[in-house]
Design goal:
InterPro entries: Cyt_c_oxase-like_su1_dom, Cyt_c_oxase-like_su1_sf, Cyt_C_Oxase_1
Oligomer: single chain
Shape: globular
Number of strands: 6
Domain Cytochrome oxidase subunit I profile: 1-554
Keywords: Electron transport, Membrane, Respiratory chain, Transmembrane, Transmembrane helix, Transport
Pfam families: COX1
Distance between the termini: 43 Å
Mean pLDDT: 91
Biased composition (Low complexity): 580-594
Low-confidence stretches: 578-594
Amino acid sequence: MLLMRWSIAFPGQPVPGLLFVENLPILGPLFHETIGRWAPGGIVNGELYNMLGAMHGTIMVFLGIVPLGFAGFVNFVMPLQIGTIDMAFPKLNMWSFWLFFVSGVLMIYSFFVGTGPVQTGWTMYSPLASTTTLAVTNVWAHGHTWWLTAMVFNISASLLGSVNVITTVINLRAKGMSWMRMPFFCWAMFVTSFLLLLAFPPLEVAALLQLVDRVFGSSFFLPTGLMEGGQHLDISGGGSPLLYQHLFWFLAHPEVYVLILPAFAILSEVIPANTRRPLWGYKSMVYAAMTLGFLSFLVWAHHMYLTGMGTMMSTYFQITTVLISVPSVILLTGLMISLWGGSIRFTPQMLFASAFLPMFGIGGLTGLPLAFTFIDLALHDTYYVIGHFHYVVAPGTIFALFAGVYHWYPKITGRIMSDFLGKLHFWPSLVGMNLIFAPMFIQGMGGFHRRWYDGGKYFEQTSSASNWVTKLTSDFFGIFGMDVPNNLLGLNVLMTFGATILALGQVPFILNVFLSIKGGRKANSDNPWHCTTLEWATPTPPPHGNFTFEPIVTRGPYEYSVPGCTQDYLPQWESEPGKAATAPASTPAPVAHH
């Protein structure tokens, strides 16, 4: 991301430190084999920019947010919250992990092959993706081949994981854990599992068919009459590029909610615990999550307005796209009202959770204009779309993931992460995120294309526009002696400055995670945040089999500040206020038989 932003802000200028890294004894040859050969003289060229763009999107979505937001949290937290000893199929879980691991190795390996990694965007649209670098006869030298192979492994891993989660939630809930006593975290992950199970197979089919097109010369996505270098391609033809787009987006819009629902799941635990209030509108939020999951399968073609669909079809997708904003607003509203009148603890996890709410709101509101064909025709493929999407998943979903790490870290390690380092992580992250993505809306409405590796330097009719934001940016950098132009190009420098702040802001988090394992303050109990859900009833960290007594659920998941109770929280496993339900001496603890 930083290399891309440098190329956009300072086109044609060497990246600071790139040549220095290339001359290092051990890292140098490795760096030259991956990125260095595409950056002659330390200057990012168009090819490298396209590679970085495609791999940034792929790695962040399929190797970053989904594995952490869904697989990581659901495997640790969900079995504890429903009171079971493990996932339903532990061996299937291990298969899921190793398939994911192999997909990551194959994806990163594509940096080392002859053509370099993919250059056709994380969407891999045919026919471009099916014909790029076809002159290279060694099929294993194609980054595209490795990308498609890695995605087949990645999708298979997600499918196995989703089956496991669905089975576990349905069959292994503890005694007394009825559906409406189940924490919203489990509900959101349950819906997410169905999205993965139903939406990922079309993309797996698309990846396999495109792989066959590239390797075996078929034409599932290649139409007749394609030309390259002035000559007709030697293909059978007859395929449909639009078929690939339909298969891809039938996954990729539910995929957006695969990214968002785990964020809401985490915040539904963090916010009540740090406001000491019940989750407002719990049942409404459950029904909203299910509605969101259903509607997410009916909106995919709003990504395809530019393909020339008829007015009847575009009207249908406009209606469903506007409708899907309703359950999203219900979820956001439930979390926001949960803050009202609360006794808020501004822990690091609460800072990230509270910042998520307005940031996700900005992402959602800026997405509404894109639902309409007329507006989308102007804004499609501009920085406006990039700003909208990233406000949802960067200061949105990723902030929620950080909140989850801070929240459950004591249960995982028995230690509490440093508050000071946590706040040192939060503020640069908040400032950096907004400096990167807010100016994108201004550039996008000015017509900036999302794939200009030179940041629009050679498109003066677009980039020469100015306004009060560009003037403020120019004056700000002028204080430090930098000559930043008073036009839309100047915002590229501002966004690169923001990206640098964001990158540096992650250093305290990395230090915090690893240093706190041994040096963090010890948790004073198994339930240091005084929470109400079942995961806090286990020893810290949870042993094999999780629970030392048979958990029996007697109430709902968010009983905070209950009138007449001597403490401000009433855990699900307590039989009566103030008295914990422990197993009789003669009752053996449950044992995991696998």
